[in-house]
Amino acid sequence: MLPSDLRPGAADALLFDLGRVVIDIDFVQVVLRWAAHAGCSPERIAQRFVRDEIYHGHERGTVSDAAFFAHLRRQLGIDITDGQFLDGWNAIFVGPMPGIAALLARAADALPLYAFSNTNQPHIDHFSPRYAGLLGHFREIFLSSSIGLRKPDAAAYEHVVQAIGVPAERIVFFDDLAENIEGARASGLQAVLVRSTGDIAAAMQALGI
């Protein structure tokens, strides 16, 4: 369901999450790769994996890759190398979301585009060159591990709004997680919950793009 105030001329900038909005991701692929390296069942790993404060710290750039992988080694109870963890970690990326390239190209002709993603340095190093063409539509990309702030914290949205330089209520934000949508709206942004690329297309139509 789109925000009721989306209409032609209602936005000065569009802000996009990356995972499952611009780039499709599948955590099952991570679990399968780690299980293959460890010689255990994927179910065992899936049951033990928790997005805890160490995970969040890795996304904020305050926990190193080595410390994160050491934590995973303990949490998951598997004895694999940092290189094997990294191999599985980056298996999460599937490809561009269906139809997103054309939508971004069209939107970029009408408004400045920005991206804001909770992510970590290994993922950045992996996806940046692989999706350079897709990411080239964005004037600036705000990454949690680079700015030290992550969604849905209010300070994260405030940082991004200030950097974009337009009022929060003139920014339309697209994200696939309800908690991030709620955080954005609490910070004054217009926000669209993305379940498929069709939700982005519908919002752009409402904005007259």
Question: What does this molecule look like?
Answer:
The chain is α/β, with parallel strands linked by helices and 209 residues long. The chain folds into two domains: 13-22 and 97-206, 3-Layer(aba) Sandwich (Rossmann fold); 27-92, Orthogonal Bundle (DNA polymerase, domain 1), CATH 1.10.150.240. It is 50% helix and 14% strand. The chain contains twelve helices and seven strands. It has helices at residues 27-38, 42-48, 53-60, 65-76, 82-89, 100-108, 121-130, 132-135, 144-147, 154-164, 178-186, 197-206; strands at residues 13-16, 23-25, 93-96, 113-117, 140-143, 171-175, 190-193. A five-stranded parallel sheet has the order 5-4-1-6-7, sandwiched between helices. The protein has a two-stranded antiparallel ribbon with strand order 2-3. Helix 1 crosses helix 2 and helix 1 runs antiparallel to helix 5. It is elongated and about 55 Å long. The model has no long low-confidence stretch (mean pLDDT 97).
| Fold-level CATH name of the largest domain | Rossmann fold
Strand coverage percent: 5-15%
Taking pLDDT < 50 over at least 5 consecutive residues as the criterion, the unreliable ranges are none
Order of helices and strands: EEHHHHHEHEHHEHHEHEH
The top level CATH class name of the largest domain: Alpha Beta
Spatial shape: elongated
How many separate domains? 2
Helix content: 40-55%
CATH superfamily grouping of the largest domain:
HAD superfamily/HAD-like
- Terminal CA distance reads 18 Å
